[in-house]
Amino acid sequence: MGPNRNRVKIIAATNIIGYGAALGGLYAAWYKNYPQSNFHVFNDMPEWKGMDKIGHAYGVYAESLASMELWRWTGISRKKRIWYGGLSGPVYHTVIEVLDAYSAEWGWSWGDIGANFIGSGMLIAQELAWDEQRIQFKFSFHRKSYNDPTLNQRSNKIFGTSTAERFLKDYNGQTYWLSANIRSFFPQSKWPKWLNIAVGTGAEGMFGANENIGKDVNGNINFSRTDIKRYRQWYLSPDIDLTKIKTNKKGLKLAFRLLNIVKIPMPALEFSNGSFKVKAIGF
To answer: Rounded CA gap, 187 and 112, in Å?
Structure first.
């Protein structure tokens, strides 16, 4: 049975329109109020303790997964579905990289491009090898607030005031996870099919790309909190694989696949600053 031509047209249009709308929203949130420049290359590998690079990989993975699942609905062949979906994320993000390249405060980043293809490759490789995502790339977020009003003011300035802006920009509140489905690797075991083990990473104390110092347009320092330590966090936590929830409804199956990129808050063991601590709920 061949692909459904009408569905192919619908999904092609959905990809174009959906991406256009998302790009417009991203431009308004991230680029609109910043000065423009000529195309230039920028090395941002040391910034934000690498959290933005993980974010690039995750974003491409999530977009490619959604695109692949939409192409599955059209009935095209397995390999076409994997490659169409898997490469859509890097294509979309290359356009974003061009916007960076013309922004005075950023630039074309080869580190970003590399991270984009890591996220895409993670999706494609697993689909080709196993026809499923045994190791799921996931994300969780919690909005940060501080007792010190100067830190809240600084966060508002560099990360934005709305929750949507903070979701995209505040690396202090983001955690990225690799969630492994144990049963898929050991099918003869009695491990519950829906129970995953997730390893996560985040970072704290970042109020600037490389250091906790801010400057005005004339280069004068107007924020200096070098006393605040910038540090990485590592987490170990149970997780739920939504794709293993049994249902005969195709709509629910698709919803579970798409929502499975979000880590459900659960207890977590955190390692940071050389010590362990248990968190009742880990975001």
So the answer is: 36
Which amino acid, one-letter code, is at 275? S
Tokens encoding 152: 């809240």
> Rounded distance, CA 89 to CA 171, Å?
21
How much is the pTM?
Answer: 0.89
Same-domain status, 243 and 283: yes
pLDDT digits (tens, 9 = 90+) for 246-268: 888 888 888 998 899 999 999 99
Dist. CA 161–CA 238, nearest whole Å: 32
Domain closes at, from 115, 131, 147? 131
The radius of gyration computed from the CA coordinates of the chain, to the nearest angstrom, equals 20
Structure confidence by residue, pLDDT tens digits, 218-239: 889 999 999 999 999 999 999 9
Indicate if 204 and 119 belong to the same structural domain: no
Spatial separation of the C-alpha atoms in residues 64 and 119, rounded to whole Å: 9
Partners of 282 in beta bridges = 266
Domain match, 94 and 186 both: no
Range of the domain at 271: 132-283
Q: What is the torsion angle, in degrees rounded to the nearest 10, for the CA atoms of residue 207, residue 208, residue 211 and residue 217?
A: -120
Same-domain status, 26 and 139: no
Beta carbons within 8 Å of 148's beta carbon, 6+ residues apart: none
